[in-house]
Amino acid sequence: MRRPRFGQGKKRGRGPRVPAATLRKQQAVTADVDQVTGAKIPKSFVFSRGKIPSTLRHLQQDLRKLMLPYTALNLKEKKRNNLKDFLNVAGPLGVTHFLILSNPKSLPHLRLARTPQGPTHTLQIEEYALAADIANSQKRPRCPPGIFKSPPLVVLSGFIGLGEHFKNLVQFFRHMVPAIDPSTVKLATCQRVLLLNYDKEKDVINFRHYSIKLQPVGVSRRIRKLVQNNQVPDLRDLKDVSDYVTKAGYGSESEADDEAATVSLASDIDKLNRASRKSAVRLQEIGPRMTLRLVKVEAGLCSGDVLYPSPVGKEEKTKQEKGEEEAEDVTESADGSDGEPEDGSEDEMEE
Questions:
Q1: What pLDDT, on a 0 to 100 scale, did the predictor assign at position 304?
Q2: What are phi and psi of 148, to 5 degrees?
Q3: Is 200 exposed, middle or buried (0-12, 13-18, 19+ CB in 10 A)?
Q4: Which residues in 90-102 are b (16+ Cβ under 10 Å) and which e?
Q5: Comparing 215 with 249, which gets the higher pLDDT?
Q6: Burial 115-153 (b: 16+ CB within 10 A, else e)
Q7: What does the pLDDT read at residue 53?
Q8: Most confident residue range from 90-99, 214-223, 269-278
Q9: Fewest CB atoms within 10 A around its CB: which of 28, 51, 70, 351?
Q10: pTM for this structure?
Q11: What's the pLDDT score for residue 259?
């Protein structure tokens, strides 16, 4: 007589059980890879080195918000943390880009570094404005929290025909956010634009951050609010519903249509912006705003050979300075040799 088997027997219809640790690793790998394009999703750390003023602390938080959702918004750093500590944490978390703020000699700098081996681009921040400053300067600021659920679109302008160091900087800007496929991208996820414009006359980079807003062409502001809010308006002082639409001020409330900013959507986005009608694209700055100047390029991660300014040029300058010093020494020795015989001749004459 056989004894009954105790414990878990073989269950039919189910595959092998995956350990929890292996499952977490698989989920982490799938989270780091774009499910549409299959490319690795770039992630970033925004932190500071050394003592920086409170305004640069606010700028650091604005940059973290700009790099959402693939950045650490609440990254906590301590004084004893060095660059190696951030690099050790960046590997397991899949962080590919560092944005480092510093304030040497009271001149704010922003270093853009690619992990783990560089290169590093150092840009001097000549002017900057915080997101709060830009919102206070606008009559109707618009910055809904939902626009930060997807990364911004990076638009580059004026970087054609520049040197090799600028080509590396352009590659950094292109790959610090996930790439998009125009044929498969969802238009509803395109909520922000990061515009980087190079001014050749001033040799600076203009850094601007905008929110994208779509408005249907030919629809007044009252109708847009009525559809978007899903609330019945106050009609107590009106005789008919049509008075709400044809009320005085209808022409001023409907914004002028600009053909250059009018597009035809490929798919429906919301109740108002549909593929069957045209929509006007409007950009509103949300900050931060910066004016940057490239001052240094290093081959490694905040170290290594200096690629810009060109070290060859520095060697030539040192050679020229040495040549000038040697020429001065030769002239001085020549003057000294001319003076000695004169002194000797005078002595002989005196004797």
A1: 92
A2: -90, 5
A3: exposed
A4: beeebbbbbbbbb
A5: 215
A6: beebbbbbbbbeebbbbeebeeeeeebebeeebbebbbb
A7: 94
A8: 90-99
A9: 351
A10: 0.73
A11: 54
